[in-house]
Write a structure and sequence with these properties.
CATH architecture of the largest domain: 3-Layer(aba) Sandwich
Number of strands: 21
CATH class of the largest domain: Alpha Beta
Number of domains: 3
Distance between the termini: 49 Å
Bound molecules: adenosine-5'-triphosphate, magnesium ion
Strand order of the largest sheet: 9-8-21-20-19-10-18-17-11-16-12-13
CATH superfamily of the largest domain: P-loop containing nucleotide triphosphate hydrolases
Radius of gyration: 28 Å
């Protein structure tokens, strides 16, 4: 085995210091031979170079009067103990500290795989990438993802949508039903196979399109021609929601006259259309009715409300990912669409009328904000706290961990974290995730694109994962302003 250093100083039960004789990187896996339990897996959490060079010595070097050869220096590491697997397969930490002076080795792949639980999960595994600097596959437990919710967190451009694309490809391979709230219309590219390259070979990924398992709906099917029109049933839209569709937020002024108008039209024609409401408003008098008339004409143009809305059996199909493309749709209407869809899915999942499914919310800080409200906040919070009982998994994707509702974030038991640099977002992440060491929080700030910290998903300790390449084309490529 490859010796990298020796334990020194006070030795704790969770961590120890070591003097390094070989360069090791933060995050590398190490092992110490324990008298009672054999090899124990550890991970380097921090590194420091200690030296006797003082300020005067540094000054002298600057002036050319000193020499670097006289500096005494040592490379010191802080390692975290992960544990060993006992006879029953349970991961345990030794209850007696290691001996000072004990040798520390680089851990071998079979020990890492065994203690971390990196195994082929067959039908229940979603292959998201390889353990960083190793060739061990990280497969997330699909049942845990759906039952216990997921969050994907990173700064803008950090690779959230790319990684989510990887996850959805895996869910589709396993015939898991998904509904994806896609505010930028990025996920239609899941139909198109990626151009395979050397990276695909290294990760053993074949390019593949999922055209047969993707369907797309949009409230604006003119702007998004690959989508079918998404409409809601007018009769089941109460006047309060109708005001939101109309873009009128003065409830005090408009709710009562709108209610009167709808009731009058509904009594003469139970199958009324938005056009019938427009005609009735046209006949009315007064400033409120005139404003209602003008806004109802706008709603008629949007074609969002129809006597028969899009049927649930069309919207949710087993093993299919339904994209709700909201590109070009006004923010308040986006919230209403999310609220209507999320509550329909939740109610029908409770009754068992639709298959268990995974509901993905991109830009989740807009739909379940920590401050202020969104029309869909309440239903998303309900799904986060109760959805798992009914087989409705939530996946919240956000670039602002600090701005998403904390009760939603803390219910996500699998976190996929890419680079985050904003101190407020880092604080929110550190507070919502168990088992994150200060060293890991530090590392999140400098993660390169394509490396994620994975917590949960069937693993007992956080793992750094090199995200596998997409089998399909990524739809969220950054737009070049100036060409080469
Ligand atoms: N694992 C990866 N391998 C290779 N390239 C990647 C990877 N992840 C992301 N990228 C590239 O980085 C860029 C940004 O990725 P992505 O669109 O996923 O970011 P994002 O976090 O969703 O950003 P935004 O918050 O703006 O939506 C893209 O051009 C993408 O191709
Ligand atoms: Mg994105």
């Amino acid at each position: 085995m490859d010796e990298v250093g020796r334990i020194f100083g006070d030795v704790g039960l969770g961590q120890f210091h070591l003097g390094l004789v070989q360069p090791v990187e933060r995050g590398d896996y190490l092992t110490v031979e324990d008298d009672l339990h054999g090899r124990v897996l550890c991970q380097l959490d921090d590194l420091r170079r200690k030296s006797d060079l003082d300020l005067e010595g540094a000054d002298a070097l600057g002036k050319g009067t000193g020499t670097e050869e006289t500096i005494h220096q040592n490379l010191l590491g802080l390692a975290r103990i992960i544990g060993y697997r006992d006879d029953q397969g349970i991961v345990k930490i030794p209850t007696i500290p290691f001996r000072p002076g004990a040798k520390v080795f680089r851990a071998e792949e079979n020990l890492i795989a065994d203690v971390l639980g990196l195994k082929h999960r067959g039908n229940t595994g979603a292959y998201v990438g390889l353990l960083r600097n190793h060739s061990l596959r990280i497969e997330l437990d699909i049942n845990q993802l759906v039952q216990r919710h997921v969050s994907v967190l990173a700064k803008t451009g950090g690779g959230k949508s790319y990684l989510l694309g990887v996850l959805i490809e895996e869910l589709l391979r396993h015939k898991v039903t998904c509904v994806i709230i896609d505010p930028h219309g990025e996920y239609g590219s899941l139909r198109i196979p990626a151009e395979a390259n050397g990276v695909h070979a290294r990760f053993h990924v074949e390019s593949q399109g999922f055209g047969k398992q993707i369907q797309e709906y949009s409230p604006d099917a003119v702007l998004n021609p690959a989508a079918k029109p998404l409409t809601f049933s007018l009769r089941s839209t109460d006047p309060r929601d109708l005001l939101i569709f109309m873009g009128l937020n003065n409830v005090k002024m408009f709710l009562a006259p709108l209610k009167t108008l709808v009731e009058a039209v509904a009594t003469t024609n139970p199958d009324y259309t938005v056009h019938d409401l427009v005609l009735a408003a046209q006949r009315g008098e007064g400033p409120a009715i005139e404003a209602l008339h003008e806004r109802l004409e706008y709603v008629e143009q949007t074609k969002l409300l129809a006597p028969q809305g899009t049927s649930l059996s069309d919207l949710v199909q087993k093993g299919v990912a339904t994209l709700i493309n909201l590109r070009g749709v006004a923010p308040d209407i986006q919230e209403l669409v999310v609220a209507r869809i999320a509550s329909t899915l939740f109610e029908n999942r409770k009754k068992g009328k639709i298959p268990p499914l995974f509901l993905v919310i991109e830009e989740a800080h807009n739909f379940a904000p920590q401050q202020g409200t969104a029309t869909c906040s309440r239903i998303l919070k309900n799904i986060a706290s109760e959805g798992r009982k009914f087989g409705l998994g939530l996946c919240a994707v956000t670039q602002r961990a600090a701005r998403i509702d904390k009760s939603v974030l803390s219910q996500c038991n699998t976190q996929l974290i890419l680079q985050v640099t904003n101190p407020l977002d880092l604080k929110a992440i550190a507070q919502s995730i168990e088992g994150l060491t200060p060293g890991m929080t530090d590392m999140i700030q400098s993660l390169p694109v394509g490396v994620a910290l994975v917590t949960g998903g069937g693993y007992h300790t956080p793992l750094f994962c090199e995200v596998r390449p997409r089998a399909t084309k990524h739809g969220g490529e950054s737009v070049k302003i100036v060409d080469n």
